[in-house]
């Protein structure tokens, strides 16, 4: 059974069809990229899957659960986490506090534990804090737990947002343009880090990305969307040499390069 299965997904805004009858599926522990020109419907596709646009046609099944018309919080409770094209951190909170926000789904203390400051609540908070420090270390931000998120360099803010998503313990991690704004060295490091997340933590990863070297270098499968329609799907090599994809997005120069 596919980890994520989408059938006939359609999302309209008034008279505009942003996503049009898309079928899609991915298996557990895959890295799958969604590519296409600006305005192709990629982020809308992510927003529908993750519950931000609940009013849609078609079905979404994740890990055996029907996600249709669920809120983002309910989708996250099934262990689907995401980042955003424009970084969405709590800028005036500490880095460690940003990660703790992502852990709330796994905390079990009730109102009485909190009001009475019971032992269970104290222990749970201490364990969550230690886990947050571990995640900061994992993404390369060790020792920066007491810095405000807004004071981190741009690339480190990207890593912090990923760390917060990892706090959900996701079965599926959605990354919306994780290499946006990064220099070539940072982009290569991001590619290796995404592969590390899959190989070490066992998470499946679905990403939107425009950097084709990164996409070709880490994807098990690529889905191509143009004007809201899926026009191609396959391995990096298959997609790279697909005539419709070359015409719509890649261009002849990209198609003749070696696969990264």
UniProtKB/TrEMBL annotation:
GO cellular component: plasma membrane
Keywords per UniProt: ATP-binding, Nucleotide-binding, Transport
Domain ABC transporter: 4-252
Gene3D superfamilies with a match to the protein in the record: P-loop containing nucleotide triphosphate hydrolases (3.40.50.300)
SMART domains assigned: AAA
GO biological process terms, semicolon-separated: D-alanine transmembrane transport; L-alanine transport; L-isoleucine import across plasma membrane; L-valine import across plasma membrane
Residues that span the membrane, as ranges: none
Molecular function in Gene Ontology: ATP binding; ATP hydrolysis activity; L-isoleucine transmembrane transporter activity; L-phenylalanine transmembrane transporter activity; L-valine transmembrane transporter activity
InterPro entries reported for this sequence: AAA+_ATPase, ABC_AA/LPS_Transport, ABC_transporter-like_ATP-bd, BCA_ABC_TP_C, P-loop_NTPase
One Pfam family linked to the record: ABC_tran
PANTHER family from the UniProt entry: AMINO ACID ABC TRANSPORTER ATP-BINDING PROTEIN, CONSERVED COMPONENT OF ABC TRANSPORTER FOR NATURAL AMINO ACIDS-RELATED
Protein name as annotated: Amino acid/amide ABC transporter ATP-binding protein 1, HAAT family (TC 3.A.1.4.-)
């Amino acid at each position: 059974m596919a980890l994520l299965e989408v059938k006939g997904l359609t999302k309209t805004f008034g008279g505009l069809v942003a996503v049009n009858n898309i079928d899609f599926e991915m298996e557990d522990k895959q890295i799958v990229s969604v590519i296409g020109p600006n305005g192709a419907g990629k982020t809308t596709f992510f927003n529908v899957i993750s519950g931000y646009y609940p009013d849609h046609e078609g079905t979404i099944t994740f890990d055996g659960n029907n996600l249709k018309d669920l809120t983002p919080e309910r989708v996250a409770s099934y262990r689907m986490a995401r980042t955003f094209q424009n970084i969405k951190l709590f800028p005036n909170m500490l880095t460690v506090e940003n990660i703790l926000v992502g852990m709330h789904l796994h905390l079990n203390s009730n109102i009485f534990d909190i009001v009475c400051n019971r032992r269970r609540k104290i222990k749970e908070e201490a364990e969550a804090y230690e886990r947050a420090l571990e995640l900061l270390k994992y993404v390369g931000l060790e020792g920066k737990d007491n810095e405000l998120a807004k004071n981190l360099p741009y690339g480190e803010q990207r890593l912090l947002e990923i760390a917060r998503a990892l706090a959900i313990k996701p079965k599926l991690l959605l990354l919306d343009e994780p290499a946006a704004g990064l220099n070539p060295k940072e982009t290569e490091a991001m590619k290796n880090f995404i592969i590390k997340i899959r190989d070490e933590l066992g998470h499946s990863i679905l990403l939107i990305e425009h950097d084709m070297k990164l996409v070709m270098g880490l994807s098990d499968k690529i889905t191509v969307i143009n004007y809201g329609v899926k026009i191609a799907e396959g391995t990096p090599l298959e997609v790279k040499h697909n005539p419709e994809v070359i015409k719509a997005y890649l261009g002849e120069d990209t198609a003749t390069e070696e696969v990264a």
